[in-house]
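Entry for the shared binder. Reason: the reviewer on the internal report wants the predicted structure included alongside the sequence.
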Amino acid sequence: MKKYRAIQWATGVVGSSALRGILRHPRLELAGVKVYSEAKEGRDAGDVIGAAKTGIVATRDVDAILALDADCVIYCPMPWSTEEICRLLERGLHVITPCPYWFPFVQNPDVAKQIENACKKGGSNFHASGCNPGGIAERFPLTFTGWMNRIDRIQMTECGDCTTYSSAGVMRELMNLGKTPDGARNNPLKTMLAKSWYEPIDMIAAGLGSRIARYEAKHDFILAAEPIETAVGTIEKGTIGLNHYQHIGVTHEGTEIIQEQIWFVGGSGQEKLERKMKVPRESGWRIHFEGDVNLNVDVDFPPELTHDERVAQGLSTTAFHLVNAVPLVCEAPEPGIKTYLDLPMITGCLGDESSTR
């Protein structure tokens, strides 16, 4: 049985879950941990996440990480660095990440070429995965289109209360929560974010044997009617308390593919906002299909979980998807970018038996 030595790069909200996943996965061994804070440097990896000691000491030294005997890196920093990713790939390390680029060939062809060249130089593979994007946005929709013949619309919606989400960068920059309307409209990440959501749209189109003829981005929001306390500080009155994105692609055949995000703070009832938005569900994800078969596929966590538990498990789905992808990415032939269209089905792993058959 082949086991793979994995480096965990970054131990934030997703990276910490990925580190736990590496320690539990029967086909993985922890080779090293890259951290960013002085408080974590020099600590045992287990101490960093409140787990048993591992004998692996966390470091901020990139050169020390690159010198390790390892097969792959689960790369989870925010923000990410394309140059850093390429350096890892050129070193011969496979890279699995929740960061872009899930299907960069249309939206970011220069970056795709840069990553492909790094893969060829190092004999390595690159795979972007996760929950959404990484599952809800493309893998699951493509799976359910097998139940259809004529496809008119596919719409993926993520919605929910983010009050206890603890990543300030995601909340305030990507989600615009706490920004002024002008700050959101002029957000320098807006173009990058649109490209990021168009990538899954492009992947779905490619998986259906088509391509996108035109794109459209829509953005609206609702302001907070009072100060709202969150895990990343106060969302002030008059700043954005609900952020609504729609990114749309229409194929040459006329099929609409829509990626939608409805993120808000202050409780599911939206009582602390200036007005309420009708959402398709209180929280979680809905994948909606229209055509000769009309279908709603809802993905959510059990109602008995607390809100904090739901947020924590939502982050874990991204991390564990990365971890479970490691053997497939390491074993994929022909160095390069590996999307869901290139890999076998990614599943969990219970033990060693399946890898010996």
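Summary line for the report: The chain has two domains: 4-128+315-356, 139-300.
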